[in-house]
Amino acid sequence: MRNILDKIYSPDDLKNLSVKELIFLAEQIRHLIIDTVSKTGGHLSSNLGSIELTIALHYCLHMPEDVILFDVGHQAYTHKILTGRKDRFHTLRQAGGISGFPDISESPYDFFTVGHSSTSISWGLGLACARDIIEQKNRRIAIVIGDAALANGMAFEALNHTGHLKKNLIVILNDNELSISPSIGALSTYLNRIASNPVYNKVRKDVEKLLKRVPFFGFRTIRAAKKLEKALKNLLVPGMFFEDLGFRYFGPINGHDIGALISTLKNVANSEGPVLLHLLTKKGNGYKHSENEPSRFHSAAKFEVASGSMASAKAESFTKIFSDKMLDLAEKKQNIVAITAAMPAGTGLEKFSQKYPQRFFDTGIAEEHAVGFAAGLARGGQKPFVAIYSTFLQRAYDQVIHDVCLQKLPVVFCLDRSGIVSDDGATHNGIFDLAYLRVIPNMVIMAPAYKIDFKRMLELAANLGGPCAIRYPKANAFDLTTQEGDTQLKVGQAEILRKGKDAVIFALGSMVTAVLEAAQILEKEDIYVEVINSRFVKPLDESMLREKAEEFKTIFTAEDGVLSGGFGSAVTEFLQNKFRHSPTVKMLGLADHFSKHGKRDYLLSQCGLNAQGIAESVKQYLNSIDLNTKRELLDK
């Protein structure tokens, strides 16, 4: 079979292909995805499991007049390949290349920029209502959502509203957990073929109209027929939950059978009211290593295709330190429990779950519930450590305020992937946590700079009587020799790492290493800066700040979060309130925009937050002060 993929430049090029050719196309796309992700890293398992579905959707619909929405968006690689980005696919997740998620700035075929789960049904219903308001009746809207994302509260709220409004909408449940849907077989397939057939649905409606004309008995007959249909479906088809919500349910069907997918999609594409199409798929389909280990290949690092082996990290990451320290703390304190929202491997809690299964809780993709659940555990005398990626805790902001901090409960929020995060782009960078947590009363906020720092903070958190958050990056942790040795950490305690006379830099968390390197660069130009490991955003080390405000005319702050409302803002507010003539504060951090995708080191350099960028910012400012001082002397 010829290389069909070479001839595909847009979804329209699919229309004249046979089912056999589409099957070959799926295999060619599968090879391209595996080969590319092995070099760039990326979400492999979810994309391999949705190739046939994506081809069938583009074959049956007419984008961009019609709409396809991918929930979470980590299964959209085939969509990108089919919508004019095939020739750039090798740039996947690279700086200046295409995103690993749908991106509205990248293509008119991407209707939303997405990276968080359970948003698609709400978006789709909004689009459907907008379509009907402007009488754009021919626009068809299809939503692809996984069984894990469907468990989130936002998805349930959207399902409920969709069933109430009865809008024309196709929700495709991509189910890769076979235990959810055991009823698959010839009879189920036959029943769904009948139920999805336009002729059957037309006859069904015509009979209802006819019976409604018969007084009394007609309506009783309709009710009896619907009860019979519902009883049969309850017995044979696992979809009555969706039927009760107001959806017409079809499935389950084989999500890798392109012929069956096309036939079913054509039948339901013009159905009246909301439709839920239930597919059974296999994560990592077609590549044995991702089939056998779908979690390891969910967000894969670069790997060797033949063996599936990935390069192991040589240095110890913050996540690894957290994983090991949690075991140590749990052994010492019997009331320590761990919670995650569908990310036990990513957050480093797998070992904890294996050693302490009764004290480990995975809530699924339900961050709001995870935080509320932690509040209940804390109120019941337990000490919950909630490990969630920084960007995903945004989804549970009200619960952090209302359920935890208002109640002064001793919940520990361990915010992995804080600051700039490699590869995944705007939706995954954890750059807002300092700003959104700092405003909440009763909250203690910490950020470790190195290994011992992090371990001390976890120990401190285990003994605190109120809420606290520890933010740390997806990066390796370094060893630093400090004056304090292994002494216990006190709340609000900063430390001096390097003395200087020209200026002082209060650095936070992962910025400490870059600032120390910047100080060495500046020293070569006879500029001597003092470096403070700030550790705490709330409370600040007020004693240290007062001391340095008396000693230096210029105070710099450095953080890998947004400047608006962040650590530098906290320092500035404190100094302005406490000093009549406070020193000048120059804040180094992230500007008011969403960061794009790329490697962490590259993105930090683009923001001026690597060692060279920090050194240059400090030098330029200090030189400008010297120049102004010389001008004032000349004027006199």
Structure description:
This protein starts with 18 loop residues before the first helix and ends with a helix. The C terminus is likely disordered. The chain is built from 25 helices and 17 strands. The longest helix has 25 residues. The protein is globular and about 90 Å long. The chain has 636 residues and is α/β, with parallel strands linked by helices. The protein has 3 domains: 220 residues, Rossmann fold (3-Layer(aba) Sandwich), CATH 3.40.50.970; 154 residues, Thiamin diphosphate (ThDP)-binding fold, Pyr/PP domains (Rossmann fold), CATH 3.40.50.970; 141 residues, Rossmann fold. The strands form 3 sheets. A 7-stranded mixed β-sheet has the order 7-6-8-9-11-10-15, with helices on both faces. Strand 13, helix 21 and strand 14 form a beta-alpha-beta unit.
Mind sketching the topology for me?
Layout lengths: L18 H22 L4 H4 L2 H10 L6 E4 L6 H9 L34 H14 L7 E6 H4 L2 H13 L3 E7 L10 H11 L1 H15 L4 H20 L3 H5 L3 E7 L3 H11 L5 E7 L7 H5 L25 H15 L3 E5 L9 H6 L4 E3 L4 H13 L3 E7 H4 L3 H9 L6 E5 L16 H6 L5 E3 L4 H13 L4 E4 L23 E4 L4 E5 L3 H13 L5 E5 L2 E3 L3 H10 L2 E9 L4 H12 L5 E7 L9 H7 L4 H25 L1
Parallel strand pairs: 1-2, 2-3, 3-5, 4-5, 6-7, 6-8, 8-9, 9-11, 10-11, 13-14, 13-16, 16-17
Antiparallel strand pairs: 10-15, 12-14
Name the beta content range. Answer: 5-15%
Per DSSP E runs of 2 or more residues, the count of β-strands stands at 17
Query: CATH-wise, what's the superfamily of the largest domain?
Result: Thiamin diphosphate (ThDP)-binding fold, Pyr/PP domains
The description of the largest β-sheet is:
7 strands, mixed
* CATH architecture designation of the largest domain: 3-Layer(aba) Sandwich
Radius of gyration: 28 Å
Low-confidence sequence ranges: 178-184, 630-636
What is the overall shape?
globular
Average residue pLDDT: 89
CATH topology of the largest domain: Rossmann fold
Indicate how many domains the architecture comprises. Answer: 3
| Order of strands, widest sheet | 7-6-8-9-11-10-15
Q: What is the CA–CA distance across the termini?
A: 86 Å
CATH class of the largest domain: Alpha Beta
Q: Number of helix segments?
A: 25
Helix content: 40-55%
